[in-house]
Design goal:
Elements lengths: L7 E9 L11 H15 L5 E3 L4 E4 L9 H11 L5 E4 L2 H4 L3 H13 L3 E4 L4 E2 L3 H34 L12 E4 L2 E4 L1 H15 L4 H10 L6 E3 L5 E3 L5 H8 L7 E4 L2 E4 L8 H14 L20 E3 L5 E6 L2 E6 H6 L8 E3 H15 L2 H13 L1 H11 E6 L3 E7 H13 L2 H4 L10 E3 L4 E4 L3 E7 L1 E5 L2 E5 L7 E3 L8 H20 L3 H8 L3 H8 L6 H8 L9 H7 L5 H8 L3
Parallel strand pairs: 1-2, 1-3, 1-4, 4-5, 13-17
Antiparallel strand pairs: 5-6, 7-8, 9-10, 11-12, 14-15, 15-16, 17-18, 18-21, 19-24, 20-21, 22-23
Helix pairs in contact: 6-9, 7-8, 12-13, 20-21
């Protein structure tokens, strides 16, 4: 019986950093492969066998391992299809010592050897490993030295005032690697500086330029692609106002050097604008605390036009703010910002109302423990939330609903609930939603209006009422209202007990007597209103200002009509 002879399956890996020349009939990749084939042929006596599959990465850098052919090679190694890897040079596989170490670990795990054709070593021997590490160390050293040399030359050129490339600034064109003035654009730049000196805010300047159909800098790249020519935003105005190019200087890191190009504005204008912008800069308010609560609708909620509603906090209150409003101004934006808590409760109320009972009970169970846990489940089900001034669309993913239902059935979630009563939603839906379903999505549509009341923006029904009310979970107490009522009762008691006038009490408290009269008016509110305040069942839309206006009516029925209390 003949002895079994092991064959060593050899794969050739080739790489070229640039796509230039790949269209040729015989290119660099072909040359590398030809050398590899010849080397494998020379090792035929060692039972080396060439794999016919090609592993060619054309137009990919060796600085990382995110390359399609290399990933295919690694996949085949892990599936035990390769014994030896052959490359033309070590740097064809990787130029990074760290990445190469990772690759060598993978090779070792799967007992794969590595051979470089032109550097005559392989990793099956300790000497081969030592040589490999030395070569990689020198290759990395050479790359770092080259980088330092390029950076030093760049810095030296900047110090001489040379233009070192990049996007051409508004007011200039690039000619013979130098900046040359464009008179038509110079007028735009100068007007931006002049308007800033006159006290016009960047947002207003951007809006005015957009209204006149004046776009940002437009130019053609070296590859012939169109760049720029977009709408103005306050951020782009700010970049122009802080760009030292316009006073004839070139910036390198934090230092400005005199440039070869002609300036557009004077140093006096530059310094004046700089002073104005410094004065207008508002530092973060020390009393504002960061809100630790997450924004569960982050990345999911958008306006009808596709503009993201981004998380923001002001004085500890969370909001979703329209990116359109931030970029183009709040004045002309229909959806400026929405209170995060109210929006999130509205969404969860109607989503719970539309989910299958099994999932609904599961989410409610989590909601009792933590709202964050409930939202982590709902985020997997929600595809997107779109908002306009007339409607909200909540789009759920049917496949995710089916998957979660299957998981809960397999985990026998319902059986664990048998000894417990079904949980009811903490939100009572006041207006029905429209639900449209297909195989892919379930869309919940809410007809709404966004109304401003007492300085707050509310999402209400078409007839101006709350879309839902909290039942099992009460609204937070309005401390301003409670404090005002308590203060009114305390002052009334003090007036009676001390037998003094309102004017005397005001002098004693060092406050305006009119303020005391105003507070005391709250005591004329009906017993029904006062009961709702103390029991925390008053509509969250009713403010202290509304109560003052209601107290102008001595008739309790008129007070109820004014506050829309049944």
């Amino acid at each position: 019986m003949s002895e079994f002879i092991k064959k060593y399956r050899c794969a050739i890996y080739t790489r070229k950093s640039h796509e230039e020349g790949l269209e040729q009939a015989f290119n660099s990749l072909d040359a590398q492969r030809e050398s590899g084939e010849a080397y494998i042929q020379s090792q035929k006596h060692q039972n080396w066998l060439l794999i016919t599959k090609y592993y060619d990465d054309g137009g990919f850098s060796g600085g990382n391992i995110d390359r399609p052919a290399l990933q295919a090679l690694l996949s085949d190694i892990k599936h035990n299809k390769i014994d030896i890897i052959v490359v033309y040079k070590v740097d064809r596989l990787s130029r990074s010592l760290g990445d190469f170490a990772k690759l060598m670990d993978i090779f070792d795990q799967h007992k794969v050897s590595f051979v470089s054709v032109t550097q005559q070593f392989n990793t099956t021997s300790s000497m081969g490993r030592l040589t490999l590490n030395m070569l990689l160390s020198f290759a990395q050293f050479e790359r770092e030295v080259t980088g330092e040399r390029i950076r030093d030359k760049f810095a030296a050129s900047k110090k001489k005032g040379l233009w070192m490339g990049g996007s051409p600034p508004l007011g200039y064109r690039i000619k013979n690697r130098r900046l040359e003035i464009i008179e038509e654009e110079v007028k735009i730049v100068q007007s931006i500086f002049q308007k800033t000196m006159a006290g016009t805010a960047p947002l207003v300047i951007a809006t005015q330029l957009n209204e006149r159909n004046i776009t940002t800098k437009a130019w053609i790249s070296q590859k012939g692609n169109s760049r720029g020519g977009n709408y103005w935003t306050p951020k782009q105005i700010y970049r122009i106002l802080t760009n030292p190019i316009y006073i004839g200087k070139v910036k390198h890191k934090e230092t400005h050097y005199k440039g070869e190009h002609q300036s557009i504005i004077t140093d006096d204008v530059w310094n004046t604008v700089k002073s104005i912008m410094t004065q207008n800069h508002k530092p973060a308010h020390p009393s504002i605390k960061k809100v630790s609560e997450p924004f569960p609708l982050k990345t999911l909620v958008k306006t009808e036009t596709g503009s993201a509603l981004s998380p923001s906090t002001t004085k500890g209150i969370r909001y979703y703010v329209s990116q359109d409003a931030i970029k183009h101004g709040f004045k002309n934006c229909p959806i400026k910002s929405l209170n995060a808590k109210r929006l999130e409760e509205l969404i969860i109320a109607y989503v719970l109302n539309s989910l299958p009972e099994l999932i609904k009970q599961y989410v409610l169970n989590k909601y009792q423990q933590s709202e964050n846990e409930a939202w982590s489940i709902l985020r997997t089900l929600i595809f997107e939330v779109k908002i306009s001034t007339r409607a909200i669309w909540v789009v759920l993913q049917q496949n995710k609903i089916r998957e979660l239902t299957l998981i809960l059935e397999q985990q026998a979630f319902r059986n664990t609930q048998n000894d417990k009563e079904d949980l009811s939603s903490p939100f009572d839906i006041m207006y029905p939603s429209q639900v449209i379903e297909d195989e892919i999505y379930q869309t919940i549509r809410l007809d709404i209006q966004i109304k401003r009341h007492d300085g707050k923006r509310w999402i209400l029904s078409k007839d101006g009422k709350l879309m839902f009310i909290t039942s099992h979970k009460k609204n937070p107490l309005d401390s301003a209202i409670l404090n005002a009522i308590a203060e009114a009762y305390a002052w009334k008691e003090q007036l009676i007990k001390e037998q003094i006038s309102v004017k005397q009490l005001a002098q004693k408290l060092s406050i305006n007597p009119n303020f005391i009269y105003k507070r005391l008016k709250l005591l004329s509110l009906s017993s029904t209103i006062l009961k709702q305040i103390t029991s925390n069942s008053l509509s969250p839309m009713i403010s202290i200002k509304d109560l003052y206006q209601a107290s102008d009516h001595l008739c309790w029925q008129k007070q109820h009509q004014f506050l829309a209390i049944q």
